[in-house]
Amino acid sequence: MAKNAPKIGVYICHCGINIAQTVDVKAVAEYAATLPNVVVARDYMYMCSDPGQDLIKKDIKEIGLTRVVVAACSPRMHEPTFRGAVFGAGMNPYLYEMCNIREQCSWVHVDKAEATAKAKDLIRSAVARASLLEPLEDRYADVTKAVMVVGAGIAGIQAALDIAEAGHKVYLVEREPSIGGHMAQLDKTFPTLDCSACILTPKMVDVSRHPNVELLTLSTVKKVSGFVGNFTVTVHQKARYVDVKQCTACGDCAKVCPQRFPNEFDLGLATRSAIYQPFPQAVPAAYCRNDQQCLGSLPLACGKCLQACEKKCIDFDQKDIVRDYEVGAIVIATGTDVFDATTLPEFGYGKYPDVLTSLEFERLCSAGGPTQGHIVRISDGEEPKDVVFIHCVGSRDKAVGNEYCSRVCCMFIIKQAHLLKDKMPDTNVTSYYMDIRAYGKGFEEFYDRVREEGVRFKRGKPSEIFRRKGKLVVRVDDTLLGKVIEHETDMVVLGVGLVPSEGYRELAQTLKLSLSSDRFFLEAHPKLRPVDTNIDGVYLAGCAQGPKDIPDTVAQAKGAASSAIALLNRGKVKVDPIVADINEDVCSSCHICEALCPYQALIYDEHKHTMTVNQILCKGCGVCPSACPSAAITLKHFTSAQIDAQLEALLERAGSSEEGAMQEPVKEKVEA
Amino acid sequence: MAEFNPTIIGFACNWCCYAGADLAGTSRMKYPPNLRLIRVMCSGRIDPQFILKAFKEGADGIFIGGCHPGDCHYVSGNYKAEKRIDLLKGLLAGLSNEPERLELHWVSATEGQIFANEVTSFTERIRKLGPLALDAPAPVQQDAPPEKQTPVPAAEPVVPPPAEDSGRKPDLTHLKAVPEAGQFASRIPQFKIPDGA
């Protein structure tokens, strides 16, 4: 062995039986010991455990290892763990290489011989790469002490309050004229029957009055740049045309407005004027003018509101504002929309006025709703004598592309059935379900109570709703009776599922966030990092990550807030040292890289006549080194030499016979 | 003749395809063990030279995975990868008449199933194609064991020139003293330009 050759230690993890069941770990360890520059190869049950890490640390100190390779799970899982371990033993963490023989070998292959051969190949490649690894120094950047919370439903409000309470600046961005989200539309919450507005509106007021919170309503995120701790977010704020500070929400302007439009807050069950307040408890408590619907300010056209407003708060000349905000972290709390029931024409939603969605029914139940809480048929204003609820509309349905369970609709409908029975005890209430999912605290007890109140639960998914002699007929296969029944009723409520909030895809692309297959934002790890995302410094709260009820939403919002607070309090953030580097002696200043870099990190130095890399702007993607015609650019930690070595090692056997190539010479290597 | 077992090299970007491959593992999906995946941060890092080198060293097929259009973690690296792969396929068509040995797929972090499916079908396609024979203009004809069909020495005279031409159509003339073009291709940028350019 050459004098300056690296001394590599290879550690192979059994991961219980996760790796060991399809990979012959002992044989792989013996093989690894024969690889060039390898001075020790060991196998161990759980390398990530403390004793496993101690094994590595001990060898670094006693044998003087200069490189460490751990063959275990994905680097996306435990690379930071082992980097920490080697760092603890005084080694540069970037001299550590991870070899993925679990997710990409033992778990995906069946044949033990083939999996073992692949594991050997992968380790040979990792060792070849490890020999060429170079030490890199971590860099640190300051963290901007501010957070942007996108979405001001209960998740965003809670996260904003927690962060503001910790003493940090919060920009709370909301697309609608008022904060509050869907929770503001609810009458009661399950299973405790708390009045939704009574528990939400104080929080809305708190967050709007908090000195650390800046509320940005009618606003959307247009662009995000930067990195963890140092994001620049461009926010587009639409003009409200009403001075929020001056407006007292007296409503004089709305009274004189001649225009009428469906009220979004009441889902079109009521109307509003072109200058309006979404709902009486709206925050900020100011009116808002829709410039598309307004007739205009000219006296000939209209301009009545201008005259009616005594305080002169209305300003037709207000302009949209596009502003950049510097923040250290971003919380995504964009929530959810309800499933569009017109997608399922068999239920007749949109065709029969007495077929409602559960959210519309909620507005009918609400004392602040269009009927002041009287539950009546939309078609004739009469009280229904028979009401049918249908579960799982747009959830657990592959045909509409929503395979997931929306989690809240079972309890939501059970609660609505209760509200109905409570207000009108003589009404027949039937609920057609696929399965009842009453999994939460107090849910099953509430379900039992509602059954005892006389709500009938029948198992079956209705196939069709049609009208016969003025009555709605629900045709359903009652799977417990085993026969198809036709249920005549006065009103049908569709328990619509939850879908990602409108604009989720644009936001995902703006932030480069991943989406799960259900189209909600993807968390960094489904079990252990449920509020983190694949972007450091961007956290998820509430239904943006997947359907959930209010307590779960609040819990996740608090989790996201605490993650953001921890980041801000730390004050420093590690910046990846994996960046491009230019060999100025070789650079021919052809400028090819300059045009390719999406971050403008490559800049021409007029004095040196070469390109240079701004290492703060560089994100380390490696687009430039693979385009440089002079091979003057190196991407640290992913150098061409390292990747070439990996390739050569992987393909070592390809030219010769499969098994014969495996050399046997066992040097005197240490065995665990 | 025993069934041909192709050697397949994969390149996957860290954020989408590699995470998708991990998900395939976490979900215990199965695919053929021929694939050997190399992780890079972005599909834009995949230098055409790596691909040519892999073919030269004996790979029968190369699978490249990046983020879906619009989803690249680094804004636009996947588009650059796509362009490079397209160009390279043209070159491969000239070399071996089998540009289908190189495939680019978009696999997101949640598409474990798609990753497993694509790898499986790609492996089968390469298995049908047989071993890569860079030196033989006509497709496979020898009866020798498949492993012998990609003799490295025979491949050498054919591949290196395109390797130098591929991504780096070098306008090196303005660099005054270029020792030899091979030195750029071998990526050992140790030489100095004699006089300050």
Fold and architecture overview:
The complex is a heterodimer of chains A (672) and B (197). With 672 residues, chain A is an alpha/beta fold. The two termini of chain A are 22 Å apart. Mean pLDDT of chain A is 93; it is low at 655-672. Chain B has a domain at 25-129. Chain B has helices spanning 17-26, 48-57, 77-96, 112-129, 152-155, 160-165, 181-185; strands at residues 8-13, 35-40, 61-66, 102-106. The longest helix of chain B is centred in the middle third of the chain and has 20 residues, at 77-96. Chain B is globular, with a radius of gyration of 18 Å. At the A-B interface, helix 3, helix 4, helix 5 and helix 16 of A face helix 1, strand 2, helix 2 and helix 3 of B.
Sheet having the most strands of chain B: 4 strands, parallel
Strands of chain A, count: 34
Helix content of chain B: 25-40%
Largest β sheet strand count, sense and barrel closure of chain A: 5 strands, parallel
Shape of chain A: globular
Structural class category of chain A: alpha/beta
What is the number of beta strands of chain B?
4
- Measured distance between first and last alpha carbons of chain B: 59 Å
How many helical stretches of chain A? 16
- Please give the oligomerization state of what you see: heterodimer
Category by helix and strand content of chain B? alpha/beta
The termini of chain A sit apart by 22 Å
Biggest chain-to-chain interface with counts: A-B, 70 and 73 residues
> Ranges of chain B with pLDDT <50 over ≥5 residues?
137-142, 144-193
Q: What pattern of helices and strands is seen along the backbone of chain B?
A: EHEHEHEHHHH
Strand order of the largest sheet of chain A: 10-7-6-18-29
Number of helices of chain B: 7
Radius of gyration of chain A: 31 Å
Mean pLDDT level of chain B: 77
What percent of residues of chain B are in strands?
5-15%
What's the SSE blueprint?
The complex is a heterodimer of chains A (672) and B (197).
Chain A: E1 8-13, H1 25-33, E2 38-44, H2 50-62, E3 67-72, H3 75-88, E4 96-100, H4 102-106, H5 112-131, E5 139-142, E6 146-150, H6 154-165, E7 169-173, E8 188-189, E9 194-195, H7 196-209, E10 213-216, E11 219-227, E12 230-237, H8 252-256, E13 261-262, E14 271-272, E15 275-276, E16 288-289, H9 304-308, E17 321-327, E18 329-332, E19 336-338, E20 355-357, H10 358-365, E21 386-393, H11 409-423, E22 428-433, H12 443-452, E23 456-459, E24 462-468, E25 471-478, E26 483-489, E27 491-496, E28 498-500, H13 504-511, E29 538-540, H14 550-570, E30 572-575, E31 580-582, H15 592-596, E32 602-605, E33 610-613, E34 633-635, H16 640-650
Parallel strand pairs in A: 1-2, 1-3, 3-4, 6-7, 6-18, 7-10, 18-29, 20-27, 21-22, 21-27, 22-23
Antiparallel strand pairs in A: 5-30, 8-9, 11-12, 12-17, 13-14, 15-16, 19-28, 24-25, 25-26, 31-34, 32-33
Helix pairs in contact in A: 1-5, 2-3, 5-16, 6-7, 6-14, 10-11, 11-12
Chain B: E1 8-13, H1 17-26, E2 35-40, H2 48-57, E3 61-66, H3 77-96, E4 102-106, H4 112-129, H5 152-155, H6 160-165, H7 181-185
Parallel strand pairs in B: 1-2, 1-3, 3-4
